[in-house]
Amino acid sequence: MRKFNTTFAAAIALATSATCLQAADVEVLHWWTSGGEASALNVLKSDLETQGIGWQDMPVAGGGGTQAMTVLRARVTSGNAPTAVQMLGFDITDWAKEGALANLNDIAAAEGWDDVVPEALQKFSKFDDTWVAAPVNVHSTNWVWANKAMLDELGIAQPTTWDELVAALEAVKASGKTAVAHGGQPWQDATIFDAVLMSTGGPEFYQKTMIDLDPEALGSDTMKQVFDRMTVIRGYVDDNFSGRDWNLASAMVINDEAAFQFMGDWAKGEFLNAGKVPGEDFLCFRFPGTAEQVTFNADQFAMFKQGDAVSPEQAALATAILSPSFQSAFNVVKGSAPARTDVSNEAFDACGKQAMADLATASESGNLLGSMAHGHANPASVKNAMYDVITAHFNGEFDSETATQELVSAVQIAM
Amino acid sequence: MATSPDAEAALATIKPVRGSAGSAQVIRTGRGARFLIYCVLAIFCFYYLLPLYVMVVNSLKPLAEIQAGGMMNLPRDWTLAPWASAWSTAQIGVAATGLRPYFLNSLLMVVPAVVISTVLGALNGYVLTKWRFRGDTLIFGLMLFGCFIPFQMVLIPMARMLGLMGLAGSVPGLIFVHLVYGIGFSTLYFRNYYAQFPTELVRAAMIDGAGFFTIFRRIMLPSSGPIAVVCVIWQFTNIWNDFLFGASFSDFDSQPMTVALNNLVQSSTGVKEYNVHFAGAIMAALPTLLVYIVAGRYFVRGLMAGSVKG
Amino acid sequence: MSQPAPASRSGSDRLRDALPKLVLAPSLALVLVFVYGFIAFTGWLSFTDSRILPSFGWVGWQNYERLFSLRHWNIAVWNLAIFGSLYIVICCVLGLALAIFLDQKIRAEGFIRTIYLYPMALSFIVTGTAWKWFLDPGIGLQAVVRSWGWETFTFDWIKDSDMAIYTIVIAAVWQTSGFVMAMFLAGLRGIDTEMLKAAQIDGASNWALYRRIVIPQLRPAFMSAFVVLAHMAIKSYDLVVALTGGGPGTATELPATFMYSYTFTRNQMGIGAASAVIMMMMIGAIIVPYLWSELREKT
């Protein structure tokens, strides 16, 4: 099928014309442009500088990486691929299929990556048993962030089941505050959908629908129930939710305007920046019904071929990324869990420690699953097709029955 | 259309017309109507100025004041800190450099592209109107249609071509791309302008033995002021404000200012420093605004002098 | 063009004859390759199984079949029809009205004209955030008017699936109507005054003067305005992304955003190329007849 094309990108990448890069520099394409993210990345930059390797920065923000991916296509097509690119999930697989990524097996073997990186992550860092990317962190997405003061005031305990959650939401709504702080953007709707689906159908159902894309499961009654539950949640967001950025939704919880936010662990950074303390001012817990599961997404740096062999700079960069010291320093700042399971959790806060513990347990018990909403369950075309249906349903464009059917056909077309 | 008003208008184009001309010389309006007219004009002034007002006013407030609400209020604590930040200390990528380093990249890209495409447009317009040959209208139509192509469509093939030409990720590459997609418009402006230019003058010069370039230099160019300004304004604005090509075809050391601004404004985590965003946005727009304000009066004059007549 | 009729033509004569075409040739070559060549390439891509990068596998009409069955696409086309027609009509009407008013020997005309024209100088990365604020019910116009006392004032179009597309029209009109006004103003300044004077002597009212003489003479200006506006309507990608990102849901999706999304985000370049071809056909269907009629008159 695409055998003709594996050489397309490879040939172009190999024919790289000389850029102004010194021999000992790396050019990194990423979208970590805000203060917190940049300081996290600076840890890596300084690390490399001590080794005499220059960091040439190529930041392209926008759309959570969408613009960066477009720029990447242009760069690869023109034979001018960057050294390393920040990438998520199936995008790495797609590029590896094109033959554009470098073989990192030597470094992996020398550093022992196979033993310390969770299996579920390796699925994306490797292609055809070859290491092609260095994972930086593991975000998990099935978190709930709650305003503790508000819960205490209303006498609500941390919900552990769906019914308890609904009761809690009802109580908050009755008191006049917003129950769920939400931003009506497709990926945010999908993040909630992930959690609800996992909670309703369990990990096997999640695997069948989101990862295996089984049409029967996608069109089943359980799926309809998931959509029904999404409608319930829809009733608890405020009127202004459409298009709101996720960090503004976090601000609602921080400023006592809303009680709950269903969001990944990057939300923690907002709370910490506002001076809130986990356990005292805000609570972090898994979405009710998903206490043992972790849906994850992992930022990785994919190494692009710059010639025949892996350049020494790329090797240095890859090694630096997976070094325990960097993993600890970076993830403390970024708010995620390290991609290595053998990093000490000393420097992390309470929620961070819980995240790392959950990650380890879930990885052992086979409950670590890629998040659909963040491109780690199925390829971009399918993910976006699902987004369409989920968002349209959430905005009331069709009912649950139709949504289920639409989901089946949308996935069909996108595959 | 009869020839004499055309010739009259064409002769008028050689000397720029000052003050108001045309219909306003003849049609008179009563006082009631004039009052109404002033009211309407004022209301629309508000409409056009509102976003700029919001941006300026909020770029001079400290962040706390913005977060407190009241986007239309004047600042209580006036501060220039956001501007300083946007210029030199805002986070753009790993480094906190502000927009300053990127301005040069944009200038290096915009100026040659505008100059070359204007000159080429002038030459093309000259050929298409004064040196007619069979099929020249078709050729003009072909070039004109090129104005409508959406940039997203040409991104990948252009990347490939740039790679093949060895221009990938460089400022000359960016200049080339903008040149290619600017030729259509500059040819349009000049061609329509020169179409109104009396051919008798050119013919007389030809009979006198003047060559192709001599006629261009001595006769066409000196009167091309107004339309050249229109062309330069249009090209400068479009190229300066372009994001897609600037992001896709630049390297780490040739990123234009639009990419930096995008990074400033679109950061997805952390506190959104709206005041810095607005200051940066206005800063990024200053060159084009300046061009519009300084050259603006020539704009209407230039449009008047023939390009509008299709 | 008169030429001497020699028995034999010298080399320099031939060069001189060929010179105009030689001068034109580079531009034409560039356009042929980089515009039409690329359109052809995109057309070819639309028949392949391209996903993340161009691929060579032929799939016939499959991409088009999929395209037309997508609810998403049909919404985008419908949105373009609404947005495009409103945008062009409102800009022309507004531009004409403002031009006529400004033409009435207004004091501070230059100043007002600059105010109307400046939005064109700004890109939407610049103004997108300002407009987004302004249109947001929580912090924008609705909030401000409510704080002035009118408690029931509602202006939440940008969050409403049915009305969001009209907010795009408002912002787009804001950006370009000044330019259209400048075009009409220039046109008004070139009106034939003799005809006007004659009609005035005959006793025609101001309204009739405008309707019967001035506006018909502005036809070339209308045509140029239409070209510029159609061009901007089709290219309006930055505007939509900055204001609504295509939302709420798919309420403000346009073919330009659709094409970008399918080619670059969803790794479905084949379908993206098919949508680009359809877009070019739509553009062609409008622009080509117009160009044909305009240019034929010239010759």
What does this structure look like?
The complex is a heterotrimer of chains A (415), B (310) and C (299). Chain A is α/β, with parallel strands linked by helices. Chain A has 2 domains: 3-137 and 299-360, Periplasmic binding protein-like II (D-Maltodextrin-Binding Protein, domain 2, 3-Layer(aba) Sandwich), CATH 3.40.190; 143-295 and 368-414, D-Maltodextrin-Binding Protein, domain 2 (3-Layer(aba) Sandwich). Chain A contains 19 helices and 15 strands. Chain A has helices spanning 3-14, 35-50, 66-77, 89-97, 105-111, 113-116, 119-125, 148-154, 162-174, 186-211, 215-218, 221-234, 246-254, 267-273, 312-321, 324-334, 350-364, 380-394, 400-414; strands at residues 25-30, 54-59, 84-88, 126-127, 130-131, 133-135, 137-140, 143-147, 178-180, 258-262, 282-286, 294-297, 299-303, 337-338, 368-370. In chain A, strands 2-1-3-13-6 form a 5-stranded mixed beta sheet, with helices on both faces. In chain A, strands 14-7-12-15 form a 4-stranded mixed beta sheet, with helices on both faces. In chain A, helix 10 (186-211) packs antiparallel against helix 12 and helix 10 (186-211) packs across helix 18. Chain A is globular, with a radius of gyration of 21 Å. Mean pLDDT of chain A is 88; it is low at 1-5 and 13-20. Chain B is built from 15 helices and no strands. In chain B, helix 6 (100-130) runs parallel beside helix 9 and helix 9 packs antiparallel against helix 12 (225-241). Residues 1-20 and 306-310 of chain B have low confidence and may be disordered. Chain C is mainly alpha-helical and 299 residues long. Chain C has one domain (70-298): Orthogonal Bundle (MetI-like fold), CATH 1.10.3720.10. Chain C has helices at 11-45, 62-69, 71-102, 109-117, 124-135, 141-147, 164-189, 193-201, 206-217, 219-235, 238-243, 255-265, 269-298. The longest helix of chain C has 35 residues, at 11-45.
Chains forming the largest contact: B-C, 108 and 110 residues
Low-pLDDT stretches of chain A: 1-5, 13-20
Distance between the termini of chain C: 15 Å
Radius of gyration of chain A: 21 Å
The CATH H-level superfamily of chain C is MetI-like
Q: Report Rg of chain C.
A: 25 Å
Number of helices of chain A: 19
Shape of chain A: globular
Oligomer: heterotrimer
Amino- and carboxy-terminal Cα gap of chain A:
14 Å
